[in-house]
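Backbone-to-sequence.
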């Protein structure tokens, strides 16, 4: 919890910060916010990630100090693991030999740290880093403010998602008072994409399908589409949100081929529809309205296994009875057969 984090930071000196592979706005914003916080306290701090910083976040203060590595080759007093559901997500060798402080806002997170500070009411881990500044008496500098705002902006889907609270706006308002420029950050994050992204988006949206009710939609991206467009992984990171813009759609799945026979699945939902529970069936996790998992197997069969679970989740949220399709209706695979 927070008091344990404060106490440890006060006592120790040599820290590392890491977050999940394929970092996003919250993982980077909160990791870098924490980095500036620790520097302000005169602590010796490394920030180490498995994957390079996506273009959208390269303007974040301190992004150039992030070291890209596949292992930790030094013993730290403590390593902060930011926004990770389990200890494998940073994909760093020898991480498990360290004293770990786990900081996250996902309710499904494993308590893998020696200290675990989990606040599922925080809209983003960035909001928790802001609270940590307050708890430690560290002034929220312009650098910290830029990083925390980026985390809030991206993890709330530009303040669209249900994790957006009064507290989110309070923190954001304080950050604006400190001097951050919301328009400039939004420009850097959302309006600085390459043409390859638009080209890939066209191909992926052309695959959009929906079930008979129109409430479940899904899209696909093949490795070939990505290669033809010359697109990067990050180019498709928000594609799952496009079908959500249709009025009657309540849940969306985005199946992204990540290697031959392997699919990263992003799930999104509106209202009470719980897609975290669907992701958990396949070994993934996340939040009620945004979750993900990795599946292996044949594309059509994976869709046939997952879509009925989404239909069930939407039916549940609407208080309807739902009968799962029988084996005659579709090819049934057990989660064990296809889960990550
Ligand atoms: P995205 O669709 O943007 O990759 O992920 C949406 C949400 O689900 C994020 O909050 C992320 O942490 C969570 N998530 C995505 N993939 C996984 C996964 O494989 N395992 C777990 N536990 N959570 C995931
Ligand atoms: Mn987050």
């Amino acid at each position: 919890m927070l008091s344990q984090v404060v106490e440890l930071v006060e006592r120790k000196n040599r820290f590392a910060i890491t977050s999940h592979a394929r970092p996003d706005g919250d993982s980077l914003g909160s990791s870098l916010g924490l980095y500036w916080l620790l520097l302000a306290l005169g602590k010796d701090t490394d920030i180490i990630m498995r994957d390079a910083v996506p273009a959208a976040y390269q303007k974040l203060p301190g992004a150039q100090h992030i070291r890209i590595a596949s292992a930790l080759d030094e013993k730290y007093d403590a390593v902060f693991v930011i926004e990770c559901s389990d200890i494998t997500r940073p994909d760093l060798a020898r991480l498990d030999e360290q004293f770990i402080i786990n900081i996250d806002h996902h309710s499904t997170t494993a308590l893998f740290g020696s200290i675990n500070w989990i606040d599922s009411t925080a809209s983003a881990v960035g909001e928790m880093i802001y609270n940590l500044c307050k708890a430690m008496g560290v002034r929220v500098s312009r650098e910290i403010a830029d990083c925390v705002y980026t985390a809030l902006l991206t993890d709330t889907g530009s303040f669209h998602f249900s994790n957006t609270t009064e507290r989110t706006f309070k923190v954001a308002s304080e950050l604006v008072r400190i001097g951050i420029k919301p328009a400039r950050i939004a420009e850097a994050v959302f309006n600085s994409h390459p043409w390859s992204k638009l080209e890939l988006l066209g191909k992926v949206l052309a695959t959009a399908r929906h079930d008979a009710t129109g409430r479940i939609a899904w899209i696909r991206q093949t490795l070939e589409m990505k290669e033809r467009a010359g697109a990067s992984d990050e180019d498709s990171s928000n594609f799952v949100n496009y079908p959500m813009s249709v009025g009657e759609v309540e849940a969306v799945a985005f199946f992204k081929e990540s290697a031959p026979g392997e699919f990263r699945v992003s799930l999104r939902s509106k209202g009470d529809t719980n897609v975290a529970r669907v992701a958990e069936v396949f070994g993934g996790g996340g939040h009620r309205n945004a979750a993900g998992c990795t599946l292996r197997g044949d594309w059509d069969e994976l869709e046939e296994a997952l879509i009925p679970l989404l239909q069930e989740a939407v039916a549940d949220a609407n208080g309807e009875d739902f009968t799962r399709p029988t084996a005659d209706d579709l090819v049934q695979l057990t989660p064990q057969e296809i889960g990550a």
